[in-house]
Specification:
By secondary structure, the chain is an alpha+beta fold. Helices cover 27% and strands 32% of the residues. It has 6 helices and 8 strands. Strands 1, 2, 3, 4, 5, 6, 7 and 8 form an 8-stranded antiparallel beta sheet that branches. A hairpin with a 2-residue loop joins strand 3 and strand 4. The longest helix is centred in the first third of the chain and has 14 residues. The protein is elongated and about 70 Å long.
Amino acid sequence: MPENLKAEEVNSKTDPSVAKQWDSTTPKETQIQDFYKFCDSMKVGLLTTIRGGIGPVSRSMALAKRSGPDFLFLANAHSNKFTDLENNKTVQVTFQNSSNQDWVSITGVATTASNSDPRIKELWSKGTSAWFGDLGDGVHNGSADDPRMALIEVQPRYISYWKTTVGMLGFMKEVGQASLMGQVANTGLLRQFVQEDISKMRSEDADMSK
């Protein structure tokens, strides 16, 4: 049923489609574990950088590792994303499960490391070389020692994600009923982690890596 509000009473705090969207009942630890579980099931996401004179620029990136709330990617140091990051370290990482519409949006700061970073050898796999190729000079060969092989680490400042709680039939039923009855469809849980949450996650869960 619609909220019994007068027109002048509807605002960002009282509008039920906004005010009730955040999950305030699930324990924070459960929310964190659900977040980790979802991210660990995703192999590829979008990394968005800010390019001068253009704005946000996104590209598909394979996730090399999650360490607590932080994310590591291997990338070619010659790619434009590194120029973007020299000028603006703010990034966004997004993941979406197209089978159930779960999604994660991560806004944070990226730092880069050259091939001398020992983590690269830990993260590198044979499949990684397919994205670099062997240039035949004995140096640029797509291996962990290839000087093009660099690291991007994203440390979140804000995280939001959606956890679907109904199947496809339940989704259709919920949306249909809401549209007929003037209600707000309830198909999942919207959650968020602010800086305080993320700092705690980083201190407690840095070893919880995938």
